Target: LTD domain-containing protein
Amino acid sequence: MKKIYFLVLAFALFSSTMSAQLIINEVLFDPASDITGDANGDGTRSPNDDEFIELVNSGSTALDISGYTIEDTYTVTIIRHVVPANTVLTAGGVYLVFGGGTPTASGTAAGNFGTATVIVASSGGLGFSNSSEVIIVRDASGTAIATLDASTLSVSTGADASVTRSPDIAGDFILHPTVNGVAFSPGLKIDGSTVLNIKEDLFAVFAMYPNPVINGKLTIISAFNGSKKVELFDTSGRSVLQTNLTTNVLNIETVKSGIYFLKVSQGSNISTSKLLIK
Model:
């Protein structure tokens, strides 16, 4: 009973420190040249209209993204989309931007875009290059909050399929078909299910505190006995730490200050959460 009470208390303390964070989760640079490249489901394959970028609010609170911009840099930097006023993403919410066309959920292979907010690029297109592309998401003040540099990826962005984080939200970018043979999943998780609210996932098994981490040590408590696999990713999806934790304390004194994503796995239980290290 004491352990259960402590877990509940820890969950409450941890959740109060979580803040909203927008990340790039999936991008389609190169739609296939036939109808299978019709990512927006409008019945027409277009090399421009079917490009898309999927952003996810990975925080535990709602996030007002009004005035945020999506820009890309190939030879020059161009603002491709400005988020309209009064656009708020709930925790775990998805913002899905297509290059153009008439996004039609019923016309997609999955038959839906989940619960995503779906829109077309305000500039008339996303204009993604199939190589050496840099995508930058900026908040309303112009501060860069998420970046994807295609030249740093280990997979091709010109492979008639999207690049997506695996696992969703915290993993490295991979080619979507390597997971399940499907070319893309706009608005959805890799497996076709709705993107999960991180807060719901967080409360399932694990308690992690303090957050922010200020002394180089993070306590991770599980409702189950046994070791835990712990992985830490930076905001670009690069793994900066991997370890098999046999105690309840993770030493991260050597990790630089910043915002990270923490993945904790124990058997079939997996939690992904944002972590601030000071």
